[in-house]
Amino acid sequence: MANDTHVLERPPEGASPDWTIPQNWQAYTAQEHATWDTLFERQAKLLPGRASHAYLKGLDALRLSESGIPNFEELSDRLMKLTGWQVVAVPGLVPDDVFFDHMANRRFVAGNFIRRPDQLDYIQEPDVFHDVFGHVPMLADPVFADYLEAYGRGGVRAMELGALKQLGRLYWYTVEFGLVEEAGDLRIYGAGIVSSSAESRFALESDSPNRIRFDMKRVMRTDYRIDDFQQNYFVIPSFDELLRQTVETDFAPLYEELLAHPDVPVATILPDDDVITHGTQDYAKAKLG
Ligand code: PHE
Ligand code: FE
Question: pTM of the entire structure?
Answer without folding.
Answer: 0.95
